[in-house]
Amino acid sequence: MKLQPHPDRLFPADPTTRDIARQLHDTIKDEPIISPHGHVPPEWLAEDIPFKDPTSLLITPDHYVNRMLHNHGIPLSSLGVGQTEFSEEDSRRAFWLLFKHWWLYRGTPVKYWMENELYDYFDIRVRPSEETADEIYDAIAEKLEKPEFRPRALYKRFPLAFLATTDDPVDDLRHHKKLAEDPDWDGEVRPTFRPDKYLEPAREDWPQLMQDLSDVSGIDTSTWAGFNEAMENRRAFFKENGAISTDHSHRDPGTARLSDADAERIYKEALAGKVSQEDADALRRSMMYEQVRMASEDGLVMTLHPAVYRNHHTPTFEKYGADVGTDIPLKTEFTENLQPALADFGTSENLHIIPFTMDETVYSRELAPLAGFYPSVFIGVPWWFIDAPEAMARFRGAITETAGFTRTSGFIDDTRAFLSIPARHDVARRVDSGYIAKLVAEHRLEMDEAVEAIHELTVNNPIRAFKLGDILNK
User: Fold this and answer.
1) Which of 148-157, 316-325, 429-438 has the lowest average pLDDT?
2) The whole model's pTM is what?
């Protein structure tokens, strides 16, 4: 059977609305991709490291792919996860395992992304299956030997206009510096300040993290005031090296500020390894309040990704480490959690906060009203478990009537799977085109308004929310 993605895929089934969606999509389908939050390692582009084989490119780093195979009894190790040695034979078998079980992905965005990648970038014209696995593997492996499949060439081919990575606060950012100083590089790859583990005082390694923070900043972190000064120091370092945002993912998005005395007391207990979980959570929320304060001063955009039960299956975490598909969503709440920080900084001209969630119940109840009032709040588009067509359409329906078309972040691919970036963004562009087309078909928008609206969602919103105007318009 032939692999041939339909040109009208994901558009509404109604012929009139589908035609409008097609016209809208045509106006933005070739716009360069803005990817302000993701996990592509910066060294891939700094060193222009060739991709080793089809499995390490398309399977091993993509937990969307791996978790579906794992739930049918296939060990993650068979897919290259956590393996320092993985032969060509191992790689080929992993590919065969994926396509032998390709039927598992029916109805999922993984199928859409992968088939688009195969068709658009590797000229694959046969459907994935157990019988075609070797043929597809060989075709991809041959392509990966060519210069046009190196990371820098793919960056331009996608095309990417902007790519942000995710980086530890004590990172020296040498790969970003190398890119910035390379006369042969004209792309935009920026670091993102991700301080999560430094804001979790109950961690066993937290005292050592405070020492690491002190060593790299040159600031004594034995006090609460010293901790905040060191954080300000590292944020400034990241900003000097091109960062435009910070990223935060905790159990809740709380921002309740402690008194300096209480914060100092709990901070000392945490340094001594004697803090209770309750006090540690209270200190973390006060730390988040301070991060909002810092953002209102230094202008770094804050993205919030709360309410994930990290490493839910402890044995898998112990064997393979984090970010391998064992994170599970939790319910969350934003209105009360963000109130303390928004009360003090929510109308600051310098502050942009972008809350993301996998809890769809908060869209119309909390996030749309927050973004409908606060000039600092932009709603993060569906992400992770809900970056799928139906969830994206529900999102637009839930938030647009209250917050309009200008208060969302632009699509966030949030991926380590580099080659899937264009396909993921195309899903969002097609779904948004379909949503706006429905408004035109119902005579709620004129066509010229619809064209402007789809351009807002695709181009203007990420530029506005992430303050990218000076970078992309230079």
Assistant:
1) 316-325
2) 0.95
